[in-house]
Write a structure and sequence with these properties.
Blueprint: E1 3-7, E2 22-26, E3 42-44, E4 57-63, H1 73-87, E5 95-99, H2 103-115, E6 119-124, H3 129-137, E7 141-145, H4 150-164, E8 169-170, H5 178-195, E9 202-206, H6 211-223, E10 228-234, E11 263-267, H7 269-283, H8 289-302, E12 308-314, H9 330-340
Parallel strand pairs: 4-12, 5-6, 5-8, 6-7, 9-10, 9-12, 10-11
Antiparallel strand pairs: 1-2, 3-4
Helix pairs in contact: 1-2, 1-5, 2-3, 5-6, 7-8
């Protein structure tokens, strides 16, 4: 039987609170691709943090790109479809439809294929070529919205399509469906608690639908109310961080409850892009821009702390962004970096 390294499942009392070990956990035989969602590994950021954070602070990233659909959105997609089937809102003859910036679309396309339902996805026309191809490979239909209206334009067009034929569609409605947050309360939060043996002090996550930070934060605070939960968002309405929302200038998701956050950290597009480059070079991780934003926020948070265990989410890997603007500045950054550190 194959094995992978994941965290120990012993209770915090069984180990030094500063010690987060690895142990071999068997990979069980799965009956469906949906059984492979979750239980993603956690990686401590060591090289990139060296000399940049106080010595008593450690930063860990949960690598959601290891989900079968390639992102953290697999969790929410599975839970929303499960709830739809349980309630009867999703039944034979219905088509799954939702608006998406990409990762949720991929996840819904995968889940729809696994449970045998057709999927239609409304997304801005300027999402990456890779995402479009992956969605099509799962057999889903893509309906494009105005690229200048970003994710909000996709939301409005999706509503228009459903309004014309409401009986045809089941809309998971990732922005307003509490099953989105519930997925993380039931899976992501408990996994992080186990993987850190309860030693986590701060949780920081980027916000699009906000399901990850809401659900994970609720679970972690139920285990220890002293844990700080931080939402990460772009610092400007005209940002280039695909999938993330600048809440003050966007249609605010119904599942977003800002009062549940202890604070928010704003990050810039360019610094997030450059962090993606740095993670690739220094940690051997090819990730997307939201992961770069999460890492920037974690480093900023660490500056004000002395003894802390920060956990953040890297929502996906970077293979879906190779044709996007994310990589326009790579060569110039690499040239400057090489000149300083040959």
């Amino acid at each position: 039987m194959a094995t992978i390294f994941r965290s120990s499942r012993r209770s915090p009392a069984d180990a030094d609170s500063a010690d987060i070990e690895r142990e071999a956990v068997p990979v069980q035989r799965a009956h469906s691709v949906l059984d492979l969602i979750g239980n993603t590994p956690m990686l401590e950021m060591t090289r990139i943090t060296r000399g940049r954070i106080p010595p008593g602070v450690r930063i860990f990233a949960k690598l959601e790109g290891f989900n079968p659909g390639g992102s953290v959105k697999d969790r929410a997609a599975r839970k929303m479809v499960e709830k739809g089937l349980e309630s009867g809102a999703l039944r034979p003859g219905k088509t799954i439809i939702d608006s998406t910036s990409g990762n949720t679309g991929i996840a819904l396309a995968m889940v729809g294929a696994a449970v045998g339902y057709p999927v239609e996805l409304v997304m801005a026309e300027n999402v990456s070529r890779e995402r479009k191809k992956i969605i099509e490979a799962y057999g889903a239909k893509i309906i494009f919205s105005d690229p200048m209206e970003s994710s909000d334009g996709a939301i409005m067009l999706c509503r228009e399509i459903i309004g014309k034929n409401p009986e045809k569609y089941f809309k998971p409605d990732q922005y307003n469906n509490e099953a989105n947050s519930l997925a993380h309360l039931e899976t992501t939060g408990p996994e992080i608690w186990r993987q850190t043996r309860g030693t986590i002090t701060h949780f920081a996550a980027t916000m699009g639908t906000s399901g990850t930070v809401m659900g994970t934060g609720r679970f972690l605070k139920s285990m220890n109310p002293e844990i700080r939960v931080i939402g990460v968002e772009p610092d400007d309405a005209m940002h280039g961080l695909e999938g993330l929302k600048h809440m003050a200038s966007s249609i605010v998701p119904g599942i977003y409850h800002e009062r549940e956050l202890d604070s928010k950290i704003a990050v810039g597009t360019e610094e997030s892009y450059e962090m993606v480059y740095t993670l690739g070079r220094d940690e051997g991780l090819l990730v997307g821009q939201s992961s770069g934003a999460a890492m920037i926020a974690s480093l900023k948070l660490a500056q004000s702390l002395t003894d802390a265990r920060i956990v953040t989410i890297f929502p996906d890997f970077g293979d879906k962004y190779l044709s996007t603007n994310l990589w326009i500045g790579w060569q110039e950054w690499h040239r400057k970096r090489t000149a300083v550190n040959p």
